[in-house]
Amino acid sequence: MTDQQRLAPGDTAPAFSLTDQEGNTVSLADYAGQRVIVYFYPAAATPGCTTQACDFRDNLAAFAAEGFAVVGISPDGPAKLATFAEAESLAFPLLSDEDHAVAAAYGAWGEKKNYGRTYEGLIRSTVVVGADGTVELAQYNVRATGHVAKLRRDLHLI
């Protein structure tokens, strides 16, 4: 699955239903009629992912004021996500995609290169889904630090 298809503006966002950090099922359909920022991160409680999650946390009110919900997705299990959410006071859904199916559907799972090694893994990505269920913006290989500020600029929220 190294030639994973990436999403582009205008594509229909793939539907999903995943378990969140509290054991609830959260679906993309739950956000119908609302814009939602779906971001994929490799692993809860790691330095880069913590920085990124806290940036989303710190900008959550500003996103909500503009009509955006935020959802984070990683390969971590719900128990690890619960610990991460509690430790960092994350007040948005963190979804468990342990089989990588949703990440793959969104083009966020594929070949990575790190320290000269090539392997399959989660590609840090953000997809903004419009109220009509289509992709408004898709960003791949984003940086953990500064990404939320760039996203706000790209969405004209600054």
Give the N-to-C terminal Cα separation.
Answer: 37 Å
Count of individual beta strands: 9
Write down the Rg: 14 Å
SSE string, helices as H and strands as E: EEEHEHEHEEEEH
Classify the beta-strand content into a percent band: 25-35%
Share of helix, binned: 25-40%
Strand order across the largest sheet = 2-1-5-4-3-8-9
What would you call the shape? globular
**Largest sheet, strands/sense/barrel:** 7 strands, mixed
Low-confidence stretches: none
Which class of secondary structure composition applies to the elements?
alpha+beta
Give the helix tally.
4
Features:
single chain; 158 residues; alpha+beta; 7-stranded mixed sheet; two-stranded antiparallel sheet; 4 helices; 29% strand; globular
Kindly describe this structure.
- The protein has four helices and nine strands; from the N terminus they run βββαβαβαββββα.
- It is an alpha+beta fold and 158 residues long.
- It has a seven-stranded mixed beta sheet, covered by helices on one side. Strands 6-7 form a two-stranded antiparallel ribbon.
- α1 (47-65) runs parallel beside α4 (147-154).
- It starts with 16 loop residues before the first strand and ends with a helix.
- The mean pLDDT is 94.
Provide a compact summary of the structure.
With 158 residues, the protein is α+β, with helices and mostly antiparallel strands. It is 27% helix and 29% strand. It has helices spanning 47-65, 78-88, 101-105, 147-154; strands at 17-20, 25-27, 35-40, 68-74, 94-96, 109-114, 117-122, 125-129, 135-140.
